[in-house]
Design goal:
heterodimer; A: alpha/beta; Rossmann fold; 4-stranded antiparallel beta sheet; about 25% strand; B: about 300 residues
Chain lengths: ~325, ~300
């Protein structure tokens, strides 16, 4: 009984989150001429211990959401609630302390490690920042973390350039783990890696989740990867959520035309299976001037009159399956 | 993968190579840099032991020895007042070295702090700081140095204060540009994400990654500063005669270039070797400080 309660309890709630990047023009007097609406009114929650997958094309705002949750970017509007506390109002110092609770794993393992720092110092820095000033104690924890992510203690004395992409990503994971966070935002953690290495890193993330009771927000554009690791999945399009459901349900019964198109693009390893690919025409419209009504109507194969005029509501159709489409009754 | 390796062994592995030791290993393989290091070290040794090396008192005038060409008595000849040029070169090392290092340090210190703050925080802080820098920059280098020197009064210490104050704008611009390019890196965002304070981020993550061009510029600049001192001395507001300084010697020699070329050549050679030494060492340091260079 307590177990189920624990599983459904929200660790993080996001309410109507917005992030606009202002566009300014002019040399001396900067005029505000518009906004890039990277994230435009997104609400969801992440339950303790689950992995929430987040998929969508490049530029749909997935990474921006991840960064706004961690307040690496300041949201334009909306709330981020972590363990019942609204963290938007936190002062710089409160937020700094809060950072031991929520961490991030970056997409590019070549760019996310300081090339001038030893790996041991990279992993040890967060421990130092969050209060362990004793050097021996810190080194002990660094060695343990290296072991946890499958590296050897002597790797701590080396520099990042001496490692392969997969190993570097492990270092990034060790850094995120170093402060024992509850939530980790994984921003496309495997998309920069070779396919053979991807599986290793994904498995490592899964093992760590069990071992340390972690909650993940897993951002990716690869639906196959997301299906494997996520308990629930959010599909994003142009700064908005179009569908949210449990992973199994979403893959078995996609309701939004965009989700259907995305799923049809997953390659199958069986050449005898013929698939009807749904090819979307054109590019993602500009987030500066998003289309009226449903943002997907310009590319939707099933678009109707109402889609151009009215923004569809993000509605619950039962079983925790949410979708924003006029055609789904 | 050894899971229960002996702790002492790990500790040893962790500590065998300090960053400084690594740097030395990398520097050692660069022959030119070692030559630069040798030149700079030699200058320091000469400056410290000038009293033992110089055969004559550098300020002692003996008019009957005036304008003697190099001989066994006066290795580099004598100047118009009969002072031994070799001794003056030896003692001049002190002035040039101190002015080069101290004036450059002052410029570097101001420039790095100002540039890092402007570049890191950006926005209106950046605008204000950089406009002030532009104002300083707009003054002709020499004019501003002369103005400061007249204001402070000519003295040995004021020379490097003036040169330091005049020179920082270049550093500020260079550092700002580097900081701006580095601060967009993922590892800076990662440092924010783990909760590092701005000061720590600037010091540990931003500045170490901007070092290469700063070191090169600094070492190049030491040569320039030594030349500026020569210029100020030439105008009579630098090092005051009869104190020996290479710049002063050059300016005194300007009337005798054809009659007594040794008066020009030796200070010239001294300045050349100093500038060369700093440049070679600086180039070597830039490479040695980069852990990505192969061991």
């Amino acid at each position: 009984m307590t177990e189920t309660k624990k599983n459904t309890e929200a660790l993080l709630q996001v309410e109507n989150l917005q992030k606009y990047f202002p566009i300014r023009k002019g040399i001396i007097v900067q005029k505000h001429v518009g906004d890039v609406k990277a994230v435009d009114g997104v609400s969801f929650d992440i339950r303790r211990g689950e992995t929430l997958g987040m998929v969508g094309e490049s530029g749909c705002g997935k990474s921006t959401i991840g960064r706004t949750i961690l307040r690496l970017l300041e949201p334009t509007g909306g709330k981020v609630i972590f363990e019942g506390k609204v963290i938007n109002g936190f002062s710089g110092e409160e937020m700094r302390k809060m950072r031991s609770q929520m961490q991030m794993i970056f997409q590019d393992p070549y760019a996310s490690l300081n090339p001038r720092m030893r790996v041991g110092d990279i992993i040890g820095e967060p421990i130092l920042i969050h209060g362990v000033s004793n050097r021996a104690e810190r080194e002990k924890r660094v060695r343990k973390l290296l072991d946890v992510v499958g590296l050897s203690p002597y790797h701590g004395a080396r520099y990042p350039h001496e490692f392969s992409g997969g190993q570097r990503q492990r270092i990034g994971i060790a850094r995120a783990l170093s402060v024992s966070p509850k939530l980790i935002v994984c921003d496309e953690p495997v998309s920069a890696l070779d396919v053979s290495i991807q599986a290793q890193v994904i498995n490592l993330l899964e093992d760590l989740q069990k071992e340390f009771d972690l909650t993940y927000l897993f951002i990716a554009h690869d639906l196959a990867v997301v299906k494997h690791i996520s308990s629930r999945v959010v599909v994003m399009y142009l700064g908005k959520m179009v569908e949210l459901s449990t992973s199994d349900e979403l893959y078995r019964n996609p309701l939004h035309p965009y989700t259907t198109a995305l799923l049809s693009a997953i390659p199958l390893p069986d050449p005898t299976v013929k698939k009807d690919r749904i090819l979307l025409k054109g590019d993602v419209p500009s987030p500066v001037n998003p289309p009226s009504g449903c943002r997907f109507h310009t590319r939707c194969p099933k678009a109707q009159g109402i889609c151009k005029q009215e923004d569809p509501e993000f509605k619950d159709i039962g079983n925790g399956h949410y979708v924003a489409c006029h055609l789904v009754k | 993968m050894p899971t229960n390796t002996d702790t002492s062994e790990i500790k040893e592995l962790y500590q065998t190579s300090s960053p400084l030791h690594d740097m030395w290993v990398r520097l050692k393989r660069n022959k030119l840099a070692l030559f630069g290091l040798f030149l700079v070290t030699a200058l320091v040794v000469i400056a410290v032991f000038a009293g033992f090396i110089a055969p004559y008192d550098p300020v002692q005038i003996s008019l009957k020895e005036s304008l003697k060409s190099p001989s066994s008595a006066h290795l580099m000849g004598t100047d118009v007042l009969g002072r031994d040029i070799f001794s003056r070169i030896i003692y001049g090392t002190r002035a040039s070295l101190i002015i080069g290092v101290v004036a450059t340090s002052i410029s570097l210190a101001i420039g790095v702090v100002v540039g890092a703050i402007a570049g890191y925080y950006g926005g209106w802080i950046d605008s204000i700081i950089m406009r002030i820098t532009d104002i300083f920059f707009a003054f002709p280098f020499f004019l501003l140095a002369i103005a400061i020197m007249t204001f402070l009064g000519p003295s040995f210490i004021n020379v490097f204060v003036a040169l330091g104050i005049v020179g920082w704008t270049n550093y500020a611009r260079l550092v700002r540009g580097q900081v701006i390019s580095v601060k967009e890196s993922d590892y800076i965002e990662a440092a924010h994400a783990v909760g590092a304070k701005d000061f720590r981020i600037i010091l540990k993550h931003v500045l170490p990654n901007t070092l290469a061009p700063i070191i090169v510029f600094t070492t190049m600049n030491i040569g320039g500063v030594i030349l500026s001192e020569a210029g100020l001395s030439f105008l009579g507001i630098g090092v005051q005669p009869p104190a020996p300084s290479w710049g002063l010697m050059l300016s005194e020699a300007s009337n005798f270039i054809f009659n007594a070329p040794w008066m020009v050549i030796w200070p010239g050679v001294a300045i050349f070797l100093t500038v060369l030494g700093y440049n070679l060492l600086g180039d070597g340091l830039r490479d040695a400080l980069d852990p990505r260079m192969k061991q």
